[in-house]
Amino acid sequence: MVLITVMSLSTFPQGTGPELHIPNIDKAVHFIFYAVATLLGIFFIRERTRGRISFNRALLQLILIVIVYGILIEVFQWAFTLTRHGDLDDVLANSVGVITAGAFMKFLHYGKSRLKW
């Protein structure tokens, strides 16, 4: 989450990265970052609580926290940076990544060879 925060609120000089012009690659990156954050977050909660919180409660809380975090980052980009701007499409990509990862974890938790919580 620190990496996402720093990269989201930092200004990078023009021309420092590779010049790739892939349509909507930015949205794919948002989706992947937030999906991975959700996957890692649920394992973090599991280890920190030793399973004392139910899986459903932990997953719901994590999904809400990460979605609110994504919204706040976009607001902070709009309010506190000069070269970046908040984008509702980024919020949507973030949220879809979070929900997709949450659904994947729910599937793993309740499948035939489910994960033990």
Measured by DSSP, the beta-strand proportion falls in under 5%
Main pleated sheet = none
What is the overall number of helices? 4
Number of strands: 0
What pattern of helices and strands is seen along the backbone?
Answer: HHHH
**Rg over alpha carbons:** 16 Å
- Unreliable spans: none
Which term fits the overall shape?
A: elongated
Helicity range of the residues? over 70%
The N- and C-terminal alpha carbons lie at a distance of 23 Å
Global structural class:
mainly alpha
Oligomer: single chain
Average per-residue pLDDT, rounded, comes to 87
Provide a descriptive summary of the structure in words.
It is a single chain. With 117 residues, the chain is mainly α. It contains 4 helices and no strands. The chain has helices at 2-9, 25-49, 55-80, 88-110. Helix 2 (25-49) packs across helix 3, helix 2 packs across helix 4 (88-110) and helix 3 (55-80) runs antiparallel to helix 4. It starts with a helix and ends in a 7-residue tail after the last helix. The model has no long low-confidence stretch (mean pLDDT 87).
Overview features:
single chain, 117 residues, mainly alpha, 4 helices, 0% strand, elongated
Short description:
By secondary structure, the protein is mostly helical.
Task: Break the fold down into its secondary structure elements and pairings.
Blueprint: H1 2-9, H2 25-49, H3 55-80, H4 88-110
